[in-house]
Design goal:
alpha+beta; Ribosomal Protein L22, Chain A; 4-stranded mixed beta sheet; 12 strands
């Protein structure tokens, strides 16, 4: 209802995607991006490659770094279909039978492509964390409630309709779970009933952008809590108007959250402790043009 051993790590080819995929300005990572350059993990917005098992020297310490990878979808359905075929051929042998069945169940072209891209994003996060994707991807599964599960890791996926996202960090007592949610700014905002009266009691009505921002926070919170949307969204807290980070008590637990105003998207990250995001972009165009890059996984 509320739709709205050790192996050599693969080379991750990263570059700013075409603006048609993620909205105007996404490619300009050096201009107007709210994240500091060292938190993004890129020395410049030009084409770059990240190789090897170690993080770049400018990345934050592993104990508070959550790796986030974004994969924009191609602009056309035909390109999505072609890319999904490339990725499924490369990644399916590394996934468990249940994961393969889960991904192949998506029949809508863009939805299917987004799910395969999210697994590519997870592989990139594992690589950035110094873990071999071909060792860990076969262990990916689902919890009874449907949330993704990877032993020894906390992870979350999100799909905005324009891009696929994955977030990953080592699971410890203080980092047992995370929640990531993304919304494209061109998506329609949630229905007004998704917000509590005190959220709507403002001098001016909530803008479409603010409704989307608050919705990403609500979804990331229930993902981190592991509850899903089991209650009316209006009962899920979302902080103060325009707030970009904060602390919330939910389901008897304390969560720390932040929203990231990525060009063309709102992205919300929630966890049991404050975290520092390390964001990377992957170009599906480079993968479709060079399939060997994908098959290196």
């Amino acid at each position: 209802m509320w739709s709205r051993g050790k192996t050599a790590a693969p080379s991750i080819i990263s570059r700013p995607p075409d603006e048609s995929a993620l909205g105007e300005g996404w490619g300009a990572w050096g201009e107007g991006n709210p994240l500091p350059r060292e938190a993004r993990g890129f020395p410049s917005p030009r084409i770059a490659a990240h190789k090897g098992n170690s993080l770049p020297a400018c990345s934050p310490a592993p104990d508070d770094a959550v790796h986030i990878a974004a994969c924009p979808l191609p602009a056309t359905d035909s390109d999505c279909r072609e890319l999904a075929a490339v990725l499924s051929s490369a990644l399916a042998p590394l996934l468990s039978p249940s994961q393969r069945a889960h991904l192949t169940a998506f029949r809508q072209t863009r939805a299917a492509c987004s799910r395969w891209l999210s697994r590519l994003a997870l592989a990139a996060c594992l690589d950035a964390a110094g873990a071999a994707p071909d060792i860990w991807l076969p262990l990916l599964g689902h919890r009874p409630g449907g949330a993704p599960f990877l032993p020894d890791w906390a992870l979350s996926f999100s799909h905005s309709g324009k891009a696929a996202f994955a977030a990953l960090l080592p699971a410890t007592e203080g980092n047992a779970c995370i929640g990531l949610d993304a919304e494209c700014l061109t998506n329609p905002p949630p229905h007004i009933d998704a917000f509590a009266p005190d959220e709507l009691r403002r001098p001016v009505p909530l803008s479409d952008g603010e409704r989307l921002r608050r919705w990403t926070l609500k979804e990331s919170l229930v993902k981190a809590a592991g509850t899903g949307l089991t209650c009316p969204p209006a009962q899920i807290p979302a902080g103060r108007h325009g707030q970009r980070r904060g602390r919330l008590d939910w389901q008897g637990k304390t969560f720390f959250w932040q929203t990231l105003a990525l060009p063309g998207h709102w992205l919300a990250l929630t966890a049991a402790r404050p975290l520092r995001p390390v964001c990377r972009l992957l170009s599906p165009e480079s993968l479709s043009q060079h399939p060997r890059t994908a098959t290196s996984f």
